[in-house]
Amino acid sequence: MNTIQVELGNRSYPIWVKPGLLSDLPDKLQIFNHGQQWVIITQPFLAGEYGSRLAEQLKANDFRVALLTIPKGEQAKALSRVESLYEDLLRMKCDRSTTILALGGGVVGDVAGFVAATFMRGIDYIQVPTTLLAMVDSSIGGKTGVNLPQGKNLVGAIYQPKAVAVDPHFLRSLPLRELVSGFAEVLKYGAIRDREFFHLLGKNMEILLSLGDDQMLEDAIARSCAIKAAIVSADEREGGMRRILNFGHTIGHALETTTGYNVLRHGEAIAFGMLCAGFISRNLGFIGSDEWERFRDTLYQLPLPELPSIDPEVVLETITLDKKVQAGTLHFVLLEEIGKAVVSTDVTEDDLLEALEIL
Ligand SMILES: NC(=O)c1ccc[n+]([C@@H]2O[C@H](COP(=O)([O-])OP(=O)(O)OC[C@H]3O[C@@H](n4cnc5c(N)ncnc54)[C@H](O)[C@@H]3O)[C@@H](O)[C@H]2O)c1
Ligand SMILES: [Zn+2]
User: Fold this and answer.
1) Ligand showing the shortest atom-to-Cα distance for residue 177
2) Is 264's pLDDT higher than 70?
3) Can you give the CATH number for the domain in which 147 is found?
4) Is residue 106 within 6 Å of ligand 1 at its C-beta?
5) How far is the CA of 347 from the centre of ligand 1 (A)?
6) Closest ligand 1 atom, CA of 45?
7) Is residue 69 lining ligand 1, measured as CB closer than 6 Å?
8) How far is Cα 317 from Cα 50, in angstroms, rounded to an integer?
9) Do both 17 and 108 map to the same domain?
10) Greater confidence, 11 or 326?
11) pLDDT in tens, 192-209
């Protein structure tokens, strides 16, 4: 088992990564069990596949546990859903001692985390991520929240979990596109912080995507978690360093918005966004042509879908509206080399347009 610590003073917490960890959870969670009510928040498919068995195992180990579900899909990230969860918790006589287990992908983690952050002014919660994206990204760092009709993630809180329990075996039931989407974020960690990791991923992408090597998969997830944990520990509220996590995201988010959220998975859009960011890095002289080609060829190890035809001008408009344009300044993440990201405020609209043309 890999254990990574997110260092945030008295709010520090461990990330455990181990294939088969689900069966060990009653044992691992014993330190947090004081006879309080536990509530697993998950989605119907995940409840059937994993949640019910987890609840039974916990009960057999003297946990008081109940299971609640929310629908799948981004629409579940809504204040109305949060309100009905509060009502469920009250109906079950939950109080400040209650602990929530968020069993699911980023949608479950964001909603259940926000409920934990706000119910009775904050109760304990533990992330049990079941998508690769949630394992390496959304379950770590404490960003929780929901969408408004006007936009994504407009309401939320930064509220850290007590632990993150990662079992890569969940990925066996995950659709391939979701897995590819997660590996785009894994490649991002290599690109911004760890050159050797990036090359290792490029060399082994096929076996990783086939889930054919448990140890390699565990290590890839743990290395990604360690990078995110280190960045979050240094910069919890995205003042500076946390910005490099947005590598590929300025253009990626704009692609998600302009193509409509159902066309590209998040990580696919980020992969295209990273391609553009790499291209701009080369055009501005940050990296050489060899490095750019190596970067591009590695990203293309991911089986990405055909990008629907996009109008670069429309994508550009979306970028300028994006919330990351703070006080008129675009903070754009570039590569100084593979494994080293820098934030630049010198990227112009023409640079962006030129990069969008390559898509
Ligand atoms: N809080 C953060 O820091 C942060 C970071 C990145 C993304 N996010 C948010 O995360 C969300 C996306 O997360 P996601 O990509 O995990 O999507 P998701 O939670 O919607 O999961 C994708 C789909 O896979 C299903 N699923 C989950 N685990 C499964 C499994 N093991 N087997 C089979 N099916 C499974 C889900 O039910 C869902 O239909 C977005 O709302 C995004 O805003 C949050
Ligand atoms: Zn992302």
Assistant:
1) 1
2) yes
3) 3.40.50.1970
4) yes
5) 31
6) 37
7) no
8) 43
9) yes
10) 11
11) 999 999 999 999 999 999
User: Which atom of ligand 1 is least distant from the CA of 113?
Assistant: 1
Q: Can you give the pLDDT at residue 326?
A: 60
pTM score of the predicted model:
0.96
Query: Residues 6 or more apart from 258 whose CB is under 8 A from it?
Result: 310, 311, 314, 315, 318
Q: How many domains are contained in the chain? A: 2
Beta bridge partners of 343: 333
Nearest atom in ligand 1 to the alpha carbon of residue 129 is 28
228 is catalytic: yes
Q: Does 191 lie in the same domain as 317?
A: yes
| Ligand with an atom nearest the CA of residue 137 | 1
- Distance between CA 315 and CA 327 in Å, rounded? 20
CA distance 159 to 64: 24
Q: How far apart are CA 272 and CA 202, in angstroms?
A: 16
Domain final residue pick, 152, 173, 194: 173
- Would you state the structure tokens that stand for residue 217, as one six-digit string? 């998969």
Ligand nearest to the CA of 160: 1
Give distance in angstroms: CA of 100 to centre of ligand 2.
Answer: 24
pLDDT tens digits for 300-338?
999 999 998 899 999 999 998 865 556 678 999 999 999
Q: What is the DSSP string of 17-67?
A: E-TTHHHHHHHHHGGG-SSPEEEEEE-HHHIIIIIHHHHHHHHHTT-EEEE
Model pLDDT for residues 77-119, shown as the tens digit of each residue: 999 999 999 999 999 999 999 999 999 999 999 999 999 999 9
Q: Which two structure tokens, joined as six digits, stand for 25?
A: 């959870």
Whether 143 is catalytic is: yes
Residue 242 annotated in active site: yes
Q: Which of 193, 223, 243, 253 is catalytic?
A: 253
**Region 39-63: what's the mean pLDDT?**
98
Active-site choice (178, 185, 256, 268)? 185
Of 139, 173, 207, the residue that ends a domain is: 173
